[in-house]
Write a structure and sequence with these properties.
Elements: E1 2-7, H1 11-14, H2 21-24, H3 27-39, E2 43-49, H4 59-63, E3 88-92, H5 98-105, E4 111-117, H6 119-133, E5 139-147, H7 151-163, E6 167-169
Helix pairs in contact: 5-6, 6-7
């Protein structure tokens, strides 16, 4: 069994408060990947960046003072067609998810693949956590299904993950 982790592909990161054009272009690519996982009856997990009304007073809010992904708001929801995809939803209040770590430590996967947003923030954080939690499980990031608001940081994040023995697929696509 394989696991697909779709990181923070939420309205606020695609075309909401923190949205950017490259994020919008990922939907169809991610949906094709979802279809292949569904056909094989593999697992799909969505992480959801989740903040509360006190976001601006948190350390993250002080460094990124743009309100986003507030719980129970439109911006917190999965973007587009992904709203209708069955899969576990894991809310997280920071970049990486310890609940996701717990899940992969209690389930055996042949591989764990990550896609979504943002490459140099939450994708890299969760990829490193997956590698740490499951050092002998192949961890894969599909670069064609990830994006950043900053192309240089996107590429640097892919380089760092490569150095940590996380397989990067479709780089440059």
């Amino acid at each position: 069994m394989k696991l697909l982790v779709i990181v923070d592909y939420q309205i606020d990161f695609v075309d909401g408060n923190l949205g950017f054009p490259k994020a919008q272009k990922l939907e169809e690519k991610i949906m094709k990947k979802v279809a292949s996982y569904q056909e094989r009856h593999d697992d799909i997990i969505f992480t959801l960046d989740t903040h509360q009304g006190d976001y601006l007073s948190t350390l993250e809010g002080q460094h990124l003072p743009i309100i986003h992904a507030l719980s129970k708001t439109k911006g917190h929801e999965l973007y587009g067609k992904l709203q209708n995809v069955l899969g576990r939803r894991i809310e997280k209040d920071t970049f990486g998810s310890l609940e996701l770590v717990h899940h992969v430590q209690t389930h055996i996967y042949d591989s764990i693949e990550l896609v979504g947003l943002v490459t140099n923030i939450c994708v890299i954080a969760n990829a490193i956590l997956m590698k740490t939690a499951c050092p002998n499980t192949p961890i894969v990031v599909d670069a064609a299904c990830t994006a950043s608001f900053d192309d240089d940081l996107h590429e640097k994040a892919l380089d760092v993950m490569t150095g940590l023995q996380i397989e990067i697929r479709n780089r440059g696509n």
